[in-house]
From TrEMBL:
The enzyme's E.C. designation: 3.6.5.4
Sequence intervals crossing the membrane: none
The keyword Membrane is annotated on this UniProt entry: yes
UniProt catalytic activity: GTP + H2O = GDP + phosphate + H(+)
Keywords noted in UniProt: Cell membrane, Cytoplasm, GTP-binding, Hydrolase, Membrane, Nucleotide-binding, Receptor
Subunit structure: Part of the signal recognition particle protein translocation system, which is composed of SRP and FtsY.
Membrane topology according to the record: Peripheral membrane protein
Superkingdom of source: Bacteria
Gene Ontology CC annotations of this record: cytoplasm; plasma membrane
Name of the protein this chain belongs to: Signal recognition particle receptor FtsY
Biased composition (Low complexity): 39-72
Keyword Manganese: no
Recorded GO MF terms: GTP binding; GTPase activity; signal recognition particle binding
Length: 420
């Protein structure tokens, strides 16, 4: 075929373009092959762009995000190490942890707990008994010494009446027998302090279920009251541990529905020893209804004791105190109240006595629980609160541990005050 000038011109223009196209295609093919010299290192190690799931294409107007080596990642095979990661994921550690059975706590035996209080009172730094012995051991006791003794008793929150009684008794003994023998002084002071604490008071807890007229077992119902900050909810949880340690079955009632964390806190205490908690499904629910449901659940399950926690109430808020009276009335429709325990902070002094009086009038308190009694020189609060209410201290808090709650033992308490 004759080649004219127009044909030569077309070949001169089109041939370089064709060569460029073929060369570019070859480079693209080589970059798509893993390990080929033409493929860059970053194209194999960089994160692959997101691929649409099986059966789905990219949406209209959506394009895969392209980065360095994106063409190779889209068209070439997925690197081997990624395939392994997707095919064999790591085991779910959280599922394995949840499948383990968490053992229940075994509460410490109740016997012997007061021995720890004796030790802590002795280490609290100049407790009441040590100060009294220091003054009484002087060679000659003048009026200034007797005034110092009375001041020591008042600072220990023993109250004016009991303090005067103790000073009068010590003066009489000093005139009759003298106070020269240290052992005699200690014995005399022990006897007088023990008389003030009154070991004759019944300090047992009424936690024995009773039988209704139809023969149904009715659990003992223990209502726990007190102001905020005294450790009331914690005391309920610790008391549950005391009862479990004594072989009793327990249900907890979270009737403190105004403090958001109260029900959670109580449920945590109960779960540690296998004790169920009856609680409201929302904050601010009627506390009387929760208390009622707790007693009903305890009756249906045939448990020994129902412990009902209530909201912390200030004694000067009449509305809240009226509500406490409502809880008491509602509970007694199902079962009689076996105990109403008032939780007091041993360090609050005379303010605690004011609380005790008001709660006694509203709720009919039958016993006192003194928290934070360890490590304080204000042991006289035991005497004062018993005189104010005419009810005994039944339980004392010994510390922050879960089993640091013990039945009050008057002799062990006095010995702790006098121990050097």
């Amino acid at each position: 075929m004759p080649v004219n000038s127009e044909t030569l011109t077309l070949l001169a223009v089109g041939l370089p373009t064709l060569v460029a196209v073929v060369t570019a295609a070859a480079l693209l093919v080589r970059r798509g092959r893993p390990g080929s010299p033409g493929g860059s290192e970053s194209s194999e190690t960089s994160e692959a762009p997101t691929r649409p799931e099986s059966g789905q294409g990219a949406g209209a107007g959506q394009q895969p995000t392209a980065g360095p080596g994106a063409a190779g990642d889209v068209t070439g095979p997925v690197p081997a190490e990624r395939t392994v990661d997707v095919a064999t994921p790591e085991p779910d550690v959280a599922v394995e942890e949840l499948s383990r059975v968490v053992p229940l706590d075994v509460p410490a035996p109740v016997q012997g707990r007061m021995a720890r209080l004796r030790d802590r009172l002795a280490r609290s730094g100049s407790p009441l008994g040590a100060r009294l012995l220091t003054v009484l051991s002087r060679d000659h006791l003048g009026e200034d010494d007797w005034d110092e003794l009375e001041e020591t008793l008042l600072l220990a929150d023993i109250g004016a009446g009991p303090a005067a009684e103790l000073i009068d008794a010590l003066r009489t003994q000093a005139r009759v027998h003298g106070l020269s023998d240290p052992a005699q002084v200690r014995s005399l002071l022990r006897a007088q302090l023990l008389a003030l604490v009154d070991p004759a008071l019944d300090r047992s807890l009424a936690t024995v279920p009773t039988l209704a007229e139809d023969g149904t077992q009715v659990p003992a119902v223990v209502l726990v009251v007190g102001v905020n900050g005294t450790g009331k909810t914690t005391t309920v949880g610790k008391l549950a541990r005391v009862l479990v340690a004594e072989g009793r079955t327990v249900v907890l009632g979270a009737a403190d529905t105004f403090r958001a964390a109260a029900a959670d806190q109580l449920q945590t205490w109960g779960s540690r020893v296998g004790v169920p908690t009856v609680r409201a499904d929302r904050d601010g629910a009627d506390p009387a209804a929760v208390a009622f449901d707790a007693v009903r659940a305890g009756t249906q399950d045939g448990v020994d004791v129902v412990l009902v926690d209530t909201a912390g109430r200030l004694q000067n808020k009449a509305g809240l105190m009226d509500e406490l009276g409502k809880i008491t009335r509602v509970l007694t429709r199902q079962a009689p109240l076996s105990e109403v325990l008032l939780v007091l902070d041993a360090t609050t002094g005379q303010n605690g006595l004011n609380q005790a009086r008001v709660f006694g009038e509203v709720a009919g308190v039958t016993g006192i629980v003194l928290t934070k009694l360890d490590g304080t020189a204000k042991g006289g609060i035991v005497v004062a609160v018993q005189r104010q209410l005419g009810v005994p201290v039944k339980l004392v808090g010994l510390g922050e541990g879960p089993d640091d709650l013990a039945p009050f033992d008057p002799e062990a308490f006095v010995d702790g005050l006098l121990r050097e």
